[in-house]
Amino acid sequence: MIIYSSLIDLSIINFKHNTYLLHGEYMKLEKQEILRKLLHIAALLMPIGIFYVPEIFNLSKWVPVYVLGTLLFASVLTEVARFKSSFVQKIFLKFFKNMMRKKEEFRITGSTYILGSGFLCSLFFVNRPEISFIALFVFILGDAAAALVGIEFGKIKIRNKSLEGSAACFLTVFILIYFVFPYFPGIMENFGGCLLLKHALQLSFIVALLEFYTIKIFGTEINDNLYVPVLTGFVLFLI
Fold this sequence. Notes:
Elements: H1 2-42, H2 45-57, H3 63-84, H4 86-96, H5 110-124, H6 129-153, E1 157-158, E2 161-162, H7 163-180, H8 197-212, E3 216-217, E4 220-221, H9 224-238
Antiparallel strand pairs: 1-2, 3-4
Helix pairs in contact: 1-6, 2-3, 2-6, 3-4, 3-5, 5-6, 5-9, 6-7, 6-9, 7-8, 8-9
């Protein structure tokens, strides 16, 4: 009886230990994803800078292109340096590992891709900076909503994405486009003050769809941080 009781006690201790490890890992992953999305939300400075900085300081519309191009160049150089030097990689991971997914330790980070999309948007729509603003703004917040809701509540999974996350992305984008942006100074002037309801719904659906599906070119997966804002901008340009 004593032996049986001891075995039960050991089982309970082992169960509690394993549960702690599982929850510890889960909390680590959750914190990592939250920090990652907070960093992405900080990228909202890009669309704000693209549209409002030239307006406020009476600068050329090309200034954001030059600034983002320089930042992108510096980011790419940093990525190359850390891939080639273990010393640089060690320093880089010391500061940014908690904000990175495991696979990004040996791949280009999402931050470099989002800088790339910011640069491309500012270049392609240099004469329509409101398009860059909207495309980048809705992607950054829509993507954050999709990730956080998908991780916390996602049940219907397709590959590594969830329908619940995509629904959160759609709703976030729609609220921004239809209810929020009309109150941002100057953003919707070229759209008559606001988008038609059908256009807002169409654009929201397209952004959610682009965020949900991964685009591959010649078998190579393209990071959604790069292509979603750019393609969103072209769709918006055609509306």
